[in-house]
Design brief:
about 500 residues; alpha+beta; Rossmann fold; Dna Ligase, domain 1; D-amino Acid Aminotransferase, Chain A, domain 1; 9-stranded antiparallel β-sheet; 5-stranded parallel β-sheet; globular
Length: about 500
């Protein structure tokens, strides 16, 4: 491959462009109307328009993207993540057009994209799964039949979209009386998001940790797993902080989980980059959750602790090269890395999106700091897409070292003109439970209240006066005339400062 089209935008398009440039491969960007001046467009060797700003009219237009690739003379297509990255029709269209799709086969995407089929593959591989339905429950399945299935699984349970991801089409149900309404909501959301209202049921594992295993598979039968990533810090089922390795995973448990991940991938003949996700129970039991048939947003933490460029290996695998990496080195932790997803969201206002122009930008630098970004000063954060500005990653010899660098980097990071989640992460890095790695997937809801539960407030049973101090600082600053024209004081930043003064 001498020229690759990146079928994506934002920071992941920039990431792929840089990997290609390191390999001497020319790059082709695509862009919608509102992305005409985006960073990925500026960095690519050439760029082609694919339609209006709305994703369905541009970045989701398979015909327009294939046409751009042909007109540009591209050899391959990298889908990034999101948009069409896990779309089997897109992978097949690339193959039919004579383009190398830098990812798994359309057949593997179809198989592992179905949550129920993926569960069956895990069972075939001898990997434990959460108790639940083995076949999809279509929109024609009656409420009575779903209730009967639910009784056999037991409560609490989760409703999940068969074709889902990112928390869409997902509902927790604590009792039979709540099932019909949750079922309607999950089906409607799944149909809207994925064009498929089928759902399945899973037993709810209370307060689990979310552990995932990155892997690579080549076209010669080799599958290599990597040291795990911890992704338990989530909001609305979306990951916001990831790290590697997990303090909850012992060397023996790591051996079991990486072996299980590789077994699932081998069972389905998987190639290229993928991730097996697990739920880890408090008793040390782990269960297959799903497989993501693409590069993950959080792949940089794995790169930082292993020194492996996953994007370059995606390209190398796609052009037929053999994996010649040392398997033991990939599963042996040699450092620690943490990633914070910096979103254009207002954490003081329910994390609502905060699109607009970036009027000022100061990006942290220095040893052990990496910022994967698609933003620049003067650039716009559009309303049409995910509001991710950048991924801030820090590396250290230990978790404490990586966290110290993250605190320093967050203090240096400045984005003016829009609100961001930086103050929230500053608060998080000072939270006693997070620092001690005492968390699970319910952590954020327990600390700040579930989404939609009212005004945000920091809940910390170990420091009961923290919220009072933060509120006092917040109100005092708002009442100070000199502060009236300044940037609003964040509850999260106030809480972090109050904790630092304790």
């Amino acid at each position: 491959m001498k020229k690759i089209l990146i079928a994506n935008r934002g920071e992941i398009a920039v990431r792929v462009i840089r990997a290609c440039r390191d390999m001497g491969i020319a790059t082709v960007a695509i862009y919608s109307e509102c992305d005409r001046a985006a960073l990925h467009v500026r960095l690519a060797d050439e760029a082609w328009p694919v339609g209006p700003s709305a994703p369905r009219e541009s970045y989701l237009r398979i015909d327009a993207i294939i046409d751009a690739a042909k007109r540009a003379g591209a050899d391959g297509v990298h889908p990034g993540y999101g948009f069409l990255a896990e779309n089997e029709d897109f992978a097949a269209a690339c193959r039919d057009a004579g383009l190398v799709f830098i990812g798994p086969s359309p057949e593997a995407i179809t198989l592992m994209g179905s949550k129920t089929a993926a569960r069956q593959a895990a069972i075939k591989a001898g990997v434990p799964v959460v108790p639940g339905t083995e076949e999809p429950l279509s929109e024609q399945t009656s409420d009575a039949d779903v209730l009967a299935v639910a009784e056999g699984i037991g409560y609490p349970l989760m409703l999940k979209a068969v074709a889902g991801g990112g928390g869409k089409g997902m509902r927790m149900v604590s009792a039979a009386a709540d099932l019909p309404a949750a079922l309607r909501a999950a089906r409607s959301e799944a149909q809207s998001a994925f064009g498929d209202g089928a759902i399945y049921l899973e037993r709810r594992i209370l307060a689990p940790r979310h552990i995932e295993v990155q892997l690579l598979g080549d076209h010669h039968g080799t599958v290599l797993p990597f040291v795990e990533r911890e992704c338990s810090i989530q909001r609305r089922h979306q990951k916001v902080v990831e790290e590697s390795p997990s303090l909850a995973v012992s060397p023996e448990l790591r051996r079991q989980m990486t072996a299980a991940a590789a077994a699932v991938a081998r069972t389905v003949g998987y190639t290229n980059a993928g991730t097996i996700e697990f739920l880890l129970d408090a008793d040390g039991s782990f269960y297959f959750l799903e497989m993501n048939t693409r590069l993950q947003v959080e792949h940089p933490v794995t790169e930082m602790v292993t020194g492996i460029d996953l994007v370059q290996w995606q390209i190398r695998i796609a052009r037929g090269e053999r994996l010649d990496l040392d398997p033991e080195l990939l599963v042996t932790p040699r450092a620690h890395a943490i990633e914070c997803r910096i979103y254009a969201e207002d954490p003081d206002n329910g994390f609502l999106p905060s699109p607009g122009r970036i009027q000022g930008l100061r990006v942290p630098q220095g040893p052990g700091v990496r910022d994967d970004s698609g933003a620049y000063e003067g650039g716009e954060v559009p309303i049409f897409y995910d509001p991710l500005i950048s991924k801030l990653i820090t590396w250290g010899e230990t978790r404490a070292h990586a966290m110290a660098r993250m605190k320093r980097a967050l203090a240096e990071y400045e984005v003016r003109g829009i609100r961001t989640t930086i103050p929230f992460f500053q608060w998080l890095m000072d939270d006693g439970d997070f620092c001690a790695a005492r968390f699970d997937t319910t952590f954020i809801d327990r600390k700040i209240g579930a989404p939609g539960s009212g005004p945000l407030q920091v809940i910390d049973s170990d420091h009961e006066d923290l919220a009072v101090i933060a509120a006092a600082v917040h109100m005092f600053t708002r009442a100070t005339p000199a502060a009236a024209a300044a940037e609003p004081v964040s509850l999260w930043k106030s809480a972090a400062r109050a904790e630092a003064l304790r």
